[in-house]
Amino acid sequence: MKSKIRSVLSVLVCIILVFVIIGTTGAIMADKLYTAQYFRDQIDKTNTYQNAYNAMIKEFSDNYSVSNIPVEVYEKSFTKEWMRNAIDEKINSTFEEREADIDCSAVEKNITEYFEDYAHEAHVMKDETYDKKLAESIMYAEKTAMNVADVYSLDVMKRAGITAKVSSYVELARKYMYPCIGLAIILLIILMILRRPVYWGGTALFASGVLMTVPTAVVLMNDMIQRFSLKNYMTYNLVTGVLETVTKNAMITGIVMLLIGLVMIIISIVYNHNKTKARI
Known about the structure:
The protein is an all-alpha fold. It has 12 helices and no strands. The chain has helices at 2-33, 36-45, 48-62, 64-67, 71-77, 80-95, 105-122, 128-149, 154-160, 162-194, 197-221, 233-279. Helix 3 (48-62) runs antiparallel to helix 8, helix 3 packs antiparallel against helix 12 and helix 5 (71-77) packs antiparallel against helix 7. The longest helix is centred in the C-terminal third of the chain and has 47 residues, at 233-279. The mean pLDDT is 88.
């Protein structure tokens, strides 16, 4: 009778442990992945710094008929280094919950010089219309560059309240990460008291690994991430790259847990088999 009760309790603790392991793994992943450093690393891996710069110059070039400002003026104002710093500042300011501090003084200076040179050559009078057109041109340049630099659309998500919600969920995950780890340890101690902790602990790890590996493997094998439809190539490349990395990390973690759990189960079965044999 005692053996049956012990087995039932072991199964119940094992089931709870599965959810605790998955929850703890999710909390750890959220803690490691939702950081400014991780966001910047993904941009580097997907060559987004260069793609963003190219996209910005292309937009300025395509809109020459509207702005009437040669692309060279913009190239002189917004360098590749400027784009890298602007992207990083957009990310850093979001995570630090402050306004982005991006220097756009070069474009103001260069466009003003271009206007003055043009006015001098074409004998254009510097009146109210001239000042208005100059201000509009500077504003257009700054807005275009800033929009391109916001590669994760953080400003849009901020206005929609998405950033605040995600941050609160991640903070909650971080808050309960260590209690989850503590609960997992307590459950393992309970399994030790109920006996066969290696077997049941391995079973919990194996089940957790399966629950993480199967769905992520299905997503990757069916190229579900690549089916996202985004008009902007730069954003598409970045978003799919990030999602693929996260999915692969989850799958690898699941496989490791699955294998460790399987080894623990085999060790426990072999040990108990040899123990029973020795008694006979």
